[in-house]
Amino acid sequence: MADRNRSRRRKKKSAKRLGVILLLELLLLITIAGSYYIVSKNKKNDDNPGKVVDNTKDNKDKTDKKDKDNKAEEKLTPEELEALKEQERLLQEIAEREDLIEQANKFKLSYDYDSAIDMIKTYKGKEGGYELYPALLSAINTLEAEKASLVLYGGSYTSVTQFNHIFFHSLVADNSKAFDGDYESKGYNMYMTTAYEFEKMMQSMYEDGYVLVSVHDLAKQIIDENGKTKFVAGEIYLPPGKKPFVLSQDDVNYYDYMDGDGFASRIVIGEDGKPTCEMILEDGSVVQGPYDIVPILDAFVEEHPDFSYKGAKGILALTGYEGSLGYRTDDPTSPTYEQDKETVKEVARVLKETGWEFASHSYNHRNMQEKSFEFIKNDTNRWLDEVGSLVGETDIFIFPYGVDIETTMGSYSGDKYKFLKEAGFNYFHGVDSKPWMHLKDDYVRMTRRPLDGQAMLEFPERLQDLFNLEEIIDPERPSKDW
Ligand SMILES: [Zn+2]
Questions:
Q1: What digits encode the pLDDT tens for the residues 8-44?
Q2: What whole-number distance in Å separates Cα of residue 383 and Cα of residue 360?
Q3: Which pLDDT tens digit goes with each residue over 410-440?
Q4: Same domain for 78 and 224?
Q5: How many CB atoms lie within 10 A of CB 161?
C-alpha cells in the first residue's frame, strides 16, 4: 500500500512537471501566434484601400483575390517576409518536438525508458541536436528521473530464478460445448482453462503487480571477457512492487479432436490488422472474436500497457503433426496447402511484431525422456522443416507433457541435449508445481506452473500465492470428475 501511495505521489510530481513544461510551450506558442496575427492583419489592412469589387464572375473574383494576396505579400519588406517564414518554421518545429515527446512517452508505458530517451536524442533541429531544446532536455530529465526510481525485478525477487512461468492450453470459449459430458469433457475439465477464468486470472495478476516479460529479457546471452558466449540473468528494472513473470501457451494447433467442442479453430488476422480467432459454430458458419489467449491478452495489454515489459506477451508452443495455428500445413495433399503456408507465415509475422514468441513443442508430442535419440533427432528436424520454416527461427523448446529430456538436477549432458543445442535451442521448459530455474552458461532451463482445471480443483493449495480461487473458478466448470 505504501508503495502504491509513493508511486502515486511520484506520478503527481511528474504530472506537475509536465504541466509546467506544457505551460511554457503554450506561452511561446501564444507569443509567436500573436506576432503572426499582427503581421497578417497589417497585410490585410494594406490590402483594403485598393479593393476592387467585381460580382460578375466568381472565377475572376477568385483570381483577383489571389493576385491581391500576392500583391499583399509583395508589399511586405523582405525582412518582414523573412520573419514570417521563420515564425512558421519555428511553430512547425515546436509541433514536431511535442509530437516526438508524445511518441517517446509511449515507450515508458511498458517501462522501456531507454528507448524513450534514445528516441528523443535522435532529434535534429535546424539549430542542432536535442541538447539545444529546453522542451526535449526537460522531457529527458523527467524520463531519467523516473527511470532512476525503478528497482531490479521490482524489488519483488532477488534473482530471475524466482520468477513465475505460468502456462495454459487452448482456452474453452464455449463452456456448454466443452463440458457437455461427452468423451472429451473430463480431459477439458482437467487440462483446460476457460476464457472466463483466464480473464479473471490476468485481472488479478495485474492488480497484484505482475508484469509479463520475455524469457529473452529474463536471461541474455552475452560474450564474456574471454570471448565465450554465456547466459546471464537479465536486468529487468520495474517500479517497486512489480513482479515479472513469463506466460506460455501449449499446443496452439487447434487439433481435430477439439472440433465442435467450443474452442477456437484457428488464429487469423482481423480486418483491423490485429490477430484474432475464428470459431466454427454448429451451423457451420464461422465467427471471429476473442476465443483464445492471443486476442484476449492483446486487448488486455492494450488497455493496460503497464502489464507488459517492453511489449512482451507470451510464448506460443506448436507441435507439427496437425499443422500449426489451426492450419493443416502438415498435409501436402490439402487443396489449401500452399495458401495455408503463406497465411501461417503472415499470421506468425504479425504475432511476433506484437510481442508473441514461438517455441517448438516437438513435432509428434511424445515423451522425450522415453523416446530414443534417433526419434528426437528426426522429430526435431521435421518440426524445423515443417513448422520452424513458417514461424521463423526460435531457440525455445517446450517439452511435451512437461517431461524434460533429462532428470538431472545438475547440468544437461546427454546426446539429446547436445543435439537440441546444436539445432539452435537455448531455453528449455518443463512443468513443475513450484517454479525453479537453472541458468547455465550454455542454456536456460525453467519449469512452468499449470493454471488448468487440475491445478484449480485438485491442488488449489499450489495456487494460493497467485489467486483467490473462489474469484477465479468459472461457475460453469464441472466439479472434479477424475
Ligand atoms: Zn502439449
A1: 444 444 555 555 445 555 555 555 555 444 444 444 4
A2: 7
A3: 999 999 999 999 999 999 999 987 779 999 9
A4: no
A5: 16
Amino acid at site 103? Q
Q: How far is the CA of 356 from the centre of ligand 1 (A)?
A: 18
| CA gap 430, 139 in Å, rounded | 44
Together in a domain, 234 and 97: no
- How large is the average pLDDT for residues 290-312? 98
Segments forming the whole domain that contains residue 468 = 153-472
**Amino acid symbol at 113:** Y
| Whole-prediction pTM | 0.84
Tell me the CA–centroid distance for residue 449 and ligand 1, in Å.
13
Rounded to the nearest 5°, which phi and psi values hold at 211? -135, 125
Band of the pLDDT at 3, cuts 50, 70, 90?
very low
What pLDDT score was predicted for residue 46? Answer: 42
- C-alpha distances (whole Å) from 394 to each of 229, 424, 426, 434 are 18, 7, 9, 26
CB 158 within 8 A of CB 236: no
Rounded Cα gap, residues 444 and 167, in angstroms: 17
Of 122, 40, 134, the residue nearest 88 (C-alpha): 40
Residues at Cβ < 5 Å from ligand 1 ion? 250-251
Q: Say which residues have a Cβ less than 8 Å from residue 87's Cβ, sequence separation at least 6.
A: 32, 35, 36, 39
Distance from residue 255's CA to the centre of ligand 1 (Å):
11
137 and 176, same domain (yes or no): no
**Same domain, residue pair 126 and 160:** no
Residue 316 C-alpha to ligand 1 middle, in angstroms? 11
Q: What percent of the chain clears pLDDT 90, i.e. is strictly above it?
A: 83
Determine the distance separating the centroid of ligand 1 and the alpha carbon of 322, expressed in angstroms: 13
Binned at pLDDT 50, 70 and 90, residue 134 comes out as very high
Looking at the structure of the chain, the number of domains it has is: 2
